[in-house]
Amino acid sequence: MGSRIGVLMGGLSTERDISLKSGTAVVAALRARGHEVVDIVVDRDLPTQLLHHRIDVAWIALHGRFGEDGCVQGLLEVMGIPYTGSGVLASAVCMDKAATKRALRGVPEVVMAEDVTIRRGESIPELPLPAVVKPAVGGSTLGIARVTRPEEAELAIRAALALDPTVLVEAFVQGPEITVAVLDGEPLPAIGIVPQKGFFDFEAKYSKGQTRYDAPAQVPDRVSQAAQRAAKLAYRALGCRGLARADFIVGSDDVPIFLEINTLPGMTPTSLSPMAAELVGIDFSGLCERILATAQCMEPEV
Length: 302
Ligand SMILES: Nc1ncnc2c1ncn2[C@@H]1O[C@H](COP(=O)(O)OP(=O)(O)O)[C@@H](O)[C@H]1O
Ligand SMILES: [Mg+2]
Prior knowledge:
Elements: E1 4-10, H1 16-32, E2 36-42, H2 46-53, E3 57-60, H3 71-79, H4 88-95, H5 97-103, E4 111-112, E5 115-119, E6 131-135, E7 145-147, H6 150-163, E8 166-171, E9 177-183, E10 186-187, E11 191-195, H7 202-206, E12 211-214, H8 221-238, E13 243-250, E14 256-262, H9 272-279, H10 284-292
Parallel strand pairs: 1-2, 1-3, 4-14
Antiparallel strand pairs: 5-8, 6-7, 6-8, 9-10, 9-11, 9-13, 11-12, 13-14
The structure holds adenosine-5'-diphosphate (ADP) and magnesium ion.
C-alpha cells in the first residue's frame, strides 16, 4: 500500500489512559499486518506533530473530549488528512447524549427512555422518577447517579451540572445491558454486560473481574435482533462512519432501550467491539484493517 498510518492516541480527556491502551493495541495489530505505522501521542502539540510526521492517514484511537467529539476530526479535515471513524457532525452530536436523543426522535425503531434535559441556570421541572442523572457530555459513567426521590435528584443534578452545562435526567430502565457494535453500517452480534455489583460504573467498567461479558448476549434472538436493527438505524440516522457502538438496556417488555452511541469505542483486545467482531470471524488485526479502509476526509471546493 505504501501508506503511512498515524495512530492517534492519548489525548486531552479523562479517558486518556484507556486511549493509550487502545492505541498501543492498534499500532501492534497494524504493524503485524505489515503496515507502516507511527504512534502519535496526542497533546496540545498535535498540529505540530501532524506536520512533522507526514502521515497519509490517521487511525483515531482517541476517546472522549477533543478526540471523539469532532475537534480532532475538524483539524484533520482542514489539513486534508483522511481519518477513520465518524466525521465532525456525527462525532459532535453523538458526544452529547441529549443531542443524540433529539436527533433520533423521528426514528420509530429506536426506542428511548423518557427524559428531561436541564441546562445550567434553569429551574428543575417535574422529573421521571426513579431516574438516572447524567451529564450530557462525558463518558465512562462519570457523574452518573441513580436517584429515586426528588431531593436526591436535585443534589445529583447539581453535581452533574458542575461537570457539564447540560444534564439529562432519564427514566430508570431495569434490565440486562447489551451493546451492539456497528462496523461500516452493519451490526455485529450483541454483547451482554453483566455487572457483578449493582450498577455498571466506572470502576466496574475498567476493573478486571467486576463485570462479566457474554459474547453473544444471553437474551432471546428477537431481542438481540431488535437491538441490532436499532443500532444500525441509529448509526445511519446520525451519519456515523467506521466503527461505532450503541448501548442498550433491555426493558421489562423485552424492548431494547437505546442509551447512547459511542463513535470511538474501546479498541483494546478485550474491548467489547473486538469481542463482537471475533464472533463473526474478524480478528483484532482484521478489525483494525476494516476500520482503516473506511478512512476519509473532504475534498477542498477550490
Ligand atoms: N436510563 C437508565 N436506566 C438504567 N441505567 C442506566 C440508564 N442510563 C444509564 N444507565 C447506566 O449507566 C451506564 C452508563 O450510561 P451511558 O448512558 O451508557 O453513559 P456512558 O457509557 O457514556 O457513561 C449504563 O451502562 C447503565 O448501566
Ligand atoms: Mg455507555
